[in-house]
């Protein structure tokens, strides 16, 4: 064999090996064909995400300055191709597309690029039928589905081969004319990530409005903390149980006479919505925190409306909402035993809602002290009753020996005066602090203390539906005017 032949064979073998290792790829780069990259069409830079795997692209007719080639002056726009990852080419993949909202005549296809290097893959949306007069502003939407096995790429990050150096999600497209002579490229950016969910800022407001009371009640400052602690504990455990994330812990934010506001935030609207079904029950629970041990309106809320609202907003949208309210009026009771005007504000006198406790006059007694004030009157026959004549309490006659008198102190007096307790007719269950006959100046700020044996509980001594509370009437000398109050140990 001649040396030359041997050499040729060796060369041939080498060439065949090269072919096997890397089959000839005439077009190593997207769009893997010979075509003019300067043309009249492009895709606008920003992709619009429509949800459910649907991404939309806007076509723009944009002829480069000075371009007079047919690609710029005549070419139509028949198809768009995207450079995509080979792994997305799974059998049975469902891709759909729309042009201006109408499904394209042919479904998009994912395929190997015939003239590209090994594995080069494209998604092709064709039969668009666009041209220079109707392409501008056309919207092409591609919906990324999966096959029946759930396989496939459903995000642009998964699907697209980004240009060198670009982050995942950036896509390269080529816009082809019918004759495939023109293929101007476009690089399009993925939609910005959705903004983080807006927190659901939420307040629980406990509010009081006067409906018919001349004696408005104000939440004492210390009860704000009590209510807030109970509401927060209750809400927090409800949120935990529902799996709702609280991003701003709830805290007392307003404590005024007629409003206790406890505010915080749920991490998102969705978090707050986990509680929506329970919201009315929660509001009712919060209301019962305020009505407290009686399970109904406490007497000091007579003539008030008590409302508890749960009020949430995310941005400007409402998120968690509920309201519960109760309108408070006086309980009907069989006291006093005479007929007189018991209404609040019948006369200018009122008892403060809570009594205080102090050591008694004797070592064996305790004093329960009731304080009095003046209030505006309602119109009626008693509105100019100005003498604070006596006070009568609803007391337990069986314990008549256990009250050791009243210690009284009109405004202006430095010491208590002791007067004996006198009882009404048998069966009236009425014990009287009398005579007083104070004028307005003496009555406003005055004090009347029951001196009761330490062995006796006020719960037993005072009668009526509010356990631990005492009913009393403030009489004028005519006995026709007798506004009634229930005085408790605390809210
Ligand atoms: C997503 O698909 C579901 C089911 O096909 C449909 O009910 C829902 O309306 C779609 N959402 C959007 C934003 O298109
Ligand atoms: C563009 O296409 C529309 C619809 O197919 C057709 O009516 C119109 O004549 C075409 N315009 C040009 C400039 O080809
Ligand atoms: C909230 O308080 C109410 C009444 O105090 C109670 O019945 C309820 O179980 C509490 N709820 C939670 C979630 O703690
Ligand atoms: C609640 O508010 C009080 C006073 O406004 C503040 O001192 C406290 O740190 C707050 N607590 C939380 C958990 O934010
Ligand atoms: C609840 O109280 C807050 C003040 O802390 C106030 O800004 C808000 O408007 C109140 N919401 C309702 C529903 O009254
Ligand atoms: C109390 O009595 C009055 C008059 O007898 C009646 O109109 C009212 O409904 C009663 N209220 C309640 C709460 O029972
Ligand atoms: C108030 O006092 C006057 C004079 O003492 C009396 O005539 C009148 O009846 C009283 N009552 C009202 C409601 O004005
Ligand atoms: C008040 O009581 C004190 C001590 O019991 C006594 O010294 C004083 O004189 C009394 N003052 C009046 C005005 O009664």
UniProtKB/TrEMBL annotation:
Protein origin, superkingdom: Eukaryota
Residue span, Pherophorin domain: 30-184, 335-483
Signal peptide residue numbers: 1-21
Keywords for this protein: Signal
UniProt protein name: Pherophorin domain-containing protein
């Amino acid at each position: 064999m001649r040396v030359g032949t041997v050499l040729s064979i060796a060369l041939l073998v080498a060439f065949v090996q090269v072919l096997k290792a890397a089959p000839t790829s005439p077009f190593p780069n997207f769009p893997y064909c010979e075509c003019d990259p300067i043309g009249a069409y492009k895709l606008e830079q920003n992709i619009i995400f429509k949800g459910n795997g649907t991404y939309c692209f806007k076509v723009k007719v944009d002829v480069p300055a000075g371009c007079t080639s047919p690609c710029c002056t005549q070419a139509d726009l028949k198809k768009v191709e995207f450079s995509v990852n080979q792994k997305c080419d799974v059998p049975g993949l469902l891709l759909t597309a729309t042009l201006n909202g109408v499904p394209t005549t042919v479904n998009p296809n994912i395929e190997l690029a015939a003239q590209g290097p090994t594995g080069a893959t494209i998604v092709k949306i064709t039969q668009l039928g666009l041209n220079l007069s109707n392409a501008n502003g056309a919207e092409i939407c591609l919906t990324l589905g999966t096959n029946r096995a759930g396989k496939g790429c459903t995000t642009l990050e998964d699907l697209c081969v980004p240009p060198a150096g670009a982050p995942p999600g950036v896509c390269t497209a080529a816009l082809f004319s019918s004759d495939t002579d023109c293929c101007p490229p476009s690089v399009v950016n993925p939609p910005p990530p959705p903004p983080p969910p807006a927190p659901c800022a939420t307040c629980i407001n406990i509010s009081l409005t006067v409906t018919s009371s001349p004696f408005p009640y104000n939440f004492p400052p210390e009860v704000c903390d009590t209510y807030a602690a109970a509401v927060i504990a209750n809400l927090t455990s409800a949120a935990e149980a529902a799996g709702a994330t609280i991003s701003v812990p709830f805290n007392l934010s307003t404590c005024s006479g007629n409003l206790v506001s406890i505010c915080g935030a749920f991490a998102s609207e969705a978090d707050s919505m986990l509680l929506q079904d329970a919201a009315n029950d929660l509001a009712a629970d919060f209301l019962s925190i305020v009505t407290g041990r009686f399970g109904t309106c406490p007497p000091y809320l007579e003539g008030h409306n008590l409302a508890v609202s749960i009020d949430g907003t995310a941005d400007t949208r409402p998120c968690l909402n509920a309201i519960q309210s109760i309108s408070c009026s006086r309980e009907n009771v069989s006291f006093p035993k005479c007929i007189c005007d018991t209404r609040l504000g019948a006369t200018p006198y009122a008892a403060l809602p809570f009594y205080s406790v102090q050591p008694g006059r004797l070592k064996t007694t305790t004093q329960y002290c009731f304080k009095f004030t003046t209030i505006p009157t309602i119109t009626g026959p008693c509105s100019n009753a100005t003498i604070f004549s006596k006070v009568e309490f609803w007391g337990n006659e069986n314990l008549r020996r256990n009250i050791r008198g009243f210690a009284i102190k009109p405004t202006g007096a430095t010491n208590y005066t002791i007067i004996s307790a006198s009882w009404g007719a048998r069966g009236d269950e009425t014990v009287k602090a009398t005579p007083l006959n104070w004028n307005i100046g003496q009555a406003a700020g005055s004090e009347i203390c029951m001196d009761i044996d330490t062995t006796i509980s006020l719960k037993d001594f005072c009668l009526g539906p509010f356990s631990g509370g005492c009913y009393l009437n403030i009489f004028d000398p005519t006995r026709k005017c007798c506004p009634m109050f229930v005085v408790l140990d605390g809210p």
